[in-house]
UniProtKB/TrEMBL annotation:
Positions of the Integrase catalytic domain: 35-161
UniProt GO molecular function: endonuclease activity; hydrolase activity; RNA stem-loop binding; RNA-directed DNA polymerase activity
Species: Diversispora eburnea
Protein name: 7947_t:CDS:1
Alphabetic keyword roster: Endonuclease, Hydrolase, Nuclease, Nucleotidyltransferase, RNA-directed DNA polymerase, Transferase
Length: 161
């Protein structure tokens, strides 16, 4: 039998009253509270940079399998370097060369929780620049690493061509 034939006589108001008073329905009811993203405000060049590794090991270019991508939050300017591996020494070498060539160090360096960014070598870089604050976000989490994650997609598209 169709649903209408079997239960068509029950008024909608009775169904609503039943659902509103049903304990099982109340327990199953999901409450949805969207997270309100707190905007990141950068006040000047290198006040906050976000960094991430792009894994290109599925389609390497000779010995290069990764790209370290660093993005300034204020200017939206990006720097990238191809890496042969994601060993901490390679990532740290890129960061050292980058900030040494600019002549400034960032105030805040934000990365995901990848081991290549929280390793001892990165901590040694902080010893060179004691004013740098490290902030670790969630890996592949656009709410915490949104700027660099979006730019990663663009960079990957450009590298594909």
């Amino acid at each position: 039998k169709s649903l209408r034939e079997r239960w068509g006589w029950v008024k909608q108001s009775i169904v609503e009253q039943f659902v509103n008073n049903c304990i099982i329905c109340a327990l199953r009811k999901l409450s949805f509270h969207p997270l309100v993203a707190k905007p990141i405000i950068a006040k000047n060049f290198l006040s906050r940079i976000q960094m991430d590794l792009i894994d290109l090991s599925f389609d390497p270019d000779e010995e290069f399998k990764y790209v370290c991508h660093v993005r300034d939050h204020f200017t939206r300017f990006s720097w990238a370097r191809a890496l042969t591996s994601k060993r901490p020494i390679e990532v740290a070498s890129f960061l050292f060369d980058l900030f040494h060539s600019i002549g400034l160090s960032p105030t805040i360096l934000q990365s995901d929780n990848g081991k290549e960014f929280v390793a001892q070598v990165i901590k040694e870089l902080i010893e060179l620049w004691p004013s740098v604050t490290i902030i670790n976000g969630w890996p592949r989490h656009p709410q915490s690493q949104g700027l660099v994650e979006r730019a990663n997609g663009i960079l990957e598209q450009k590298l594909d061509k």
